[in-house]
Specification:
Layout: E1 3-7, H1 8-49, H2 67-79, E2 84-88, H3 89-95, H4 103-108, H5 114-120
Antiparallel strand pairs: 1-2
Amino acid sequence: MKEITVPKDDLLAKLKQNRDDHRAIFEEALTGYQAESEAELQQQLDLLRAGKRRDIRIVKVVPRDHTSDYNRAIAMIEMALGDTITLSERDFAQYVMDDWGWQGEFLSNSYGSGTAQSKFGDVYTVS
């Protein structure tokens, strides 16, 4: 199936829920990023102060917020005429299934988000 027509109100409700879930994951990820970064930096500082000299490399990817992607889709649908919306397979994957092109990277940098675990448990792994 290449296209599907869905009720506008149902699509908006799903998109708004997906946006709220995304924002919760993002906020939890920021907290996890902060805690993990501070712990790793403290560990390196403790080693340095203990006289252990070695190369130090710390790479922590800052979580990215994609709320604007949801807001754009919501605004487009709210402005669309009529009671139904026709979605392509790709649009359906993003808007309904919450499967965006950036989703894998986003989840891999969600730093133990409980919301990510509960929503994407089958495909989500904490590293």
